[in-house]
Each structure stands twice: as C-alpha cells, then as structure tokens.
UniProtKB/TrEMBL annotation:
<keyword id="KW-0679">Respiratory chain</keyword>
<protein>
    <recommendedName>
        <fullName>Ubiquinol-cytochrome C reductase hinge domain-containing protein</fullName>
    </recommendedName>
</protein>
<keyword id="KW-0813">Transport</keyword>
<keyword id="KW-0472">Membrane</keyword>
<keyword id="KW-0496">Mitochondrion</keyword>
<dbReference type="Pfam" id="PF02320">
    <property type="entry name" value="UCR_hinge"/>
</dbReference>
<keyword id="KW-0249">Electron transport</keyword>
<dbReference type="GO" id="GO:0005743">
    <property type="term" value="C:mitochondrial inner membrane"/>
</dbReference>
<comment type="similarity">
    <text>Belongs to the UQCRH/QCR6 family.</text>
</comment>
<feature type="domain" description="Ubiquinol-cytochrome C reductase hinge">
    <location>
        <begin position="37"/>
        <end position="97"/>
    </location>
</feature>
<dbReference type="InterPro" id="IPR036811">
    <property type="entry name" value="Ubol_cytC_Rdtase_hinge_dom_sf"/>
</dbReference>
<keyword id="KW-0999">Mitochondrion inner membrane</keyword>
<dbReference type="InterPro" id="IPR023184">
    <property type="entry name" value="Ubol_cytC_Rdtase_hinge_dom"/>
</dbReference>
Length: 97
C-alpha cells in the first residue's frame, strides 16, 4: 500500500490491515468471510519487493504532482504492474488449484 497526501493509496491488492494473515489467507477466506484472490496478495508482496521499489517511488512521485498537472500517471502505473506481474507469474500457478 502506498502513502500519498497523508492517506493510504491502494495500487493493487488487498490492504494488509484487512487480511488476517497473508500466508494463511493466500487461497482462503478473509476474517469477514470474503474470498481472497491470491493474485492480489502476490502482487502486493511483489510491489513491496526491492525489484519494484523504484516503480513504486515513481508512481508515488507522480501521484503527488498529478493534481497540479494534467498528468495521468498511467505510464508509471503500467510500469509497476508489469514489474509486479513479472514476479507473480511464476508463483501464481503454485497456489491455484
């Protein structure tokens, strides 16, 4: 989860505070009974990795200056998504049935 303007920003995935345990709920159920999509948790973990850190920082910087410009941050978001999906792709089929 990213921080911007003092408020949490969801880029992808489920906010960790709403999940009982990322490992136990990877293919399970959240505490409120909703099903957990494992790709959301894997993407969030990937975005927190050192490999995607620069993309997260670029998206945060864009998000801070975006209200002042006509910029959409689409390019930064796509770059972050490509980085996280490159990490998630080899892992996702291990957790799917």
């Amino acid at each position: 989860m990213l921080q911007g303007h003092g408020q949490p920003i969801r880029v992808l995935g489920v906010a960790q505070s709403t999940v009982t345990s990322p490992v136990s709920t990877l293919c399970g159920v959240m505490s409120n009974g909703d099903l957990v999509d494992p790709i959301d948790l894997l993407r969030e973990q990937a975005q927190n990795s050192s490999k995607c850190r620069s993309f997260v920082e670029k998206l945060q910087a864009c998000g801070e200056r975006q209200p002042k410009t006509k910029e959409s941050c689409e390019e930064e978001f796509i770059d972050l998504l490509e980085c996280s999906d490159a990490i998630v792709a080899p892992q996702i089929f291990k957790v799917l049935k």
